[in-house]
Design goal:
This protein is an alpha+beta fold. It has helices at residues 3-23, 58-61, 95-98, 144-153, 156-161; strands at 26-29, 32-33, 42-43, 49-51, 62-65, 68-71, 85-88, 91-94, 108-111, 116-119, 129-132, 135-138, 206-209, 232-235. It has a 4-stranded mixed sheet with strand order 4-1-6-5. A 4-stranded mixed sheet has the order 10-7-12-11, with no helix packed on it. The chain is globular, with a radius of gyration of 22 Å. The termini are far apart. The relative contact order is 0.12. The structure holds zinc ion (2 copies). One zinc ion is lined by residues 28, 32, 43, 45, 49, 51.
Length: 238
């Protein structure tokens, strides 16, 4: 084959390779699970980059900015061992802060993880949080967009349930400033729901706060299984 033909062939192959790659690339920014399987770990590239692997659970674990996928979930199941921050319940996440870009208006999304969980990022600026025993609680109001997306995005909890990753230990009731859902999450706690039966779906109706502010009584701790008397029950969010 002549040198010229060879060059032409190379150029053609490059073109084919380029277009094939272009057709199958997804843009990411910030740390994210490599594949979505916990054993495959995390990609730690901070700046915008591409992979030929589509984001798994993209509709619940990621939000998009400019066609770029930003992972906002709890990185613990994927073997994350960096600095982490403990949160309880649903809270705002500011995408432009996570991926460190300048914008005129914050891009606020919401995390729908029920109960105690971790993030690699600290509570975003310009949002109201209160801390109790080193756990962050969102103390602001939830907007209509949060409510509208709730049925879809709250499924993140179904995704995480099977992974049984460690969660922050929270043994007290949330502070009153927190208006989000209060839901028992029995991961890593000695309960019987995982033995012989599937865990129940997260309840959106019965919300239980364990508070020992009633009069003294013979009440042994049972990790919240005891849902009968002496516990306060709330319906709904407001
Ligand atoms: Zn990556
Ligand atoms: Zn969260």
């Amino acid at each position: 084959m002549s040198r010229r033909n060879l060059a032409g062939l190379s150029a053609l192959l490059l073109l084919v390779a380029a277009s094939a790659a272009e057709a199958k690339q997804w843009k990411y920014a910030g740390m994210h699970p490599r594949t979505g399987q916990p054993g495959d770990g995390l990609c730690h590239l901070e700046t915008t980059h591409v992979h030929s692997v589509a984001p798994q659970y993209a509709d619940t674990l990621y939000r998009t900015h400019d066609n770029t996928y930003v992972f906002i979930g709890d990185p613990t199941p994927f073997g994350y061992d960096g600095p982490r921050h403990a949160y309880y319940g649903h809270h705002p996440v500011v995408l432009n802060v996570i991926i460190n870009i300048d914008v005129d208006v914050d891009e606020v999304e919401y995390c729908y993880h029920d109960g105690p969980h971790y993030h690699a990022y600290e509570p975003p600026p310009r949002q109201e949080f209160v801390d109790k025993e080193e756990v962050h609680y969102y103390a602001g109001e939830y907007p209509d967009a949060y409510r509208r997306d709730n049925p879809k995005l709250v499924r993140v909890n179904t995704v995480y349930r099977g992974w049984n990753a460690p969660r922050p230990e929270v043994t007290f009731a949330p502070p009153p400033q927190y208006h989000g859902p209060i839901i028992q999450v029995n991961v890593g706690v000695d309960v019987d729901v995982r033995v012989g039966s599937r865990p129940p779906p997260p309840s959106r109706e019965v919300i239980i706060i364990r508070e020992d502010d009633d009069h003294d009584h013979d009440h042994h701790h049972d990790n919240g299984k005891h849902k009968g008397h002496k516990n306060k029950k709330f319906k709904g969010r407001d």
